Amino acid sequence: ELLKYACEIASENGSPYFIFDRDDISLAACCRLKTEITDQGMILHPEKLRFAGIQNVTINLPQCAYRAFPNNKISGSFLDTKNADSMELFLEKIDQAFHLAVKAHLQKKKFLRMMMENSDGPLWQIGKTAQDGRPYVNLDEGTYLIGLIGLNEAVQHITGKQLHENEDIFKLGLKIVSFMSLKCREYSKKFNLKLSLEESPAESAAGRLAKIDLQEFPDSKKVIKGNSIGDESYYTNSIHFAAAAPVDLITRIIKQSKFHPLIKSGAIIHAFVGES
């Protein structure tokens, strides 16, 4: 009866959350943000749970592609040895963006700590030690999110095809996100920072970054969606297929979900069913 009522409410305004119980202990909030709980003490005493996504820094994947290949495309399989140097250049641009993202996180962490540790600071109330012996927000335990945007346009610039148009291109997208997931793990250990890959809830960033790239990178006109000369230009959100791609919902769910194990802090699939 409760499930039926929740489905009725969801069909009207989408407010209920549906979280599948797959044995893992996890928390979910903010549309797609999630984390896994591995501390047995917190599992046994849920009143001690703390969950904070400190900041999200989003990597503009199409811009990485423009910088790597300003005047040419590559084609063929990602694993093709003749393309190894070209793809290495593209991944190098992503790695450079990662360095900037991590630098931004470290600077933000330092700034927040300064405001939380001083009794006259604006964030002291959430940084001071509470009655349970812990601060409400612990910057050392928080998650520092690395977002991604425009995977579809990045591979389109490189190969001339979008994610949904070719199986090899789709696999190329998976390898790019796999690289980013491994970088999160590598830099987490290097900087002692809990970095995690997330599908950025980036509708505003999708438009803003596209408009900036239109001014800086002329080749972007060939891949940016919407109106490339007006205010309606945008990149496809995160790892999604283009919204206008002629792909049925089930196929879209099956394909896009292949990326989800690589994106530890939350993923989402948009099902546009209102018009039907």
TrEMBL record:
Record GO terms (molecular function): ribonucleoside-diphosphate reductase activity, thioredoxin disulfide as acceptor; ribonucleoside-triphosphate reductase (thioredoxin) activity
One biological process term in Gene Ontology: 2'-deoxyribonucleotide biosynthetic process
Pfam families: NRDD
UniProt-listed SUPFAM superfamilies: PFL-like glycyl radical enzymes
GO CC annotation: anaerobic ribonucleoside-triphosphate reductase complex
Protein name: Uncharacterized protein
Organism of derivation: marine sediment metagenome
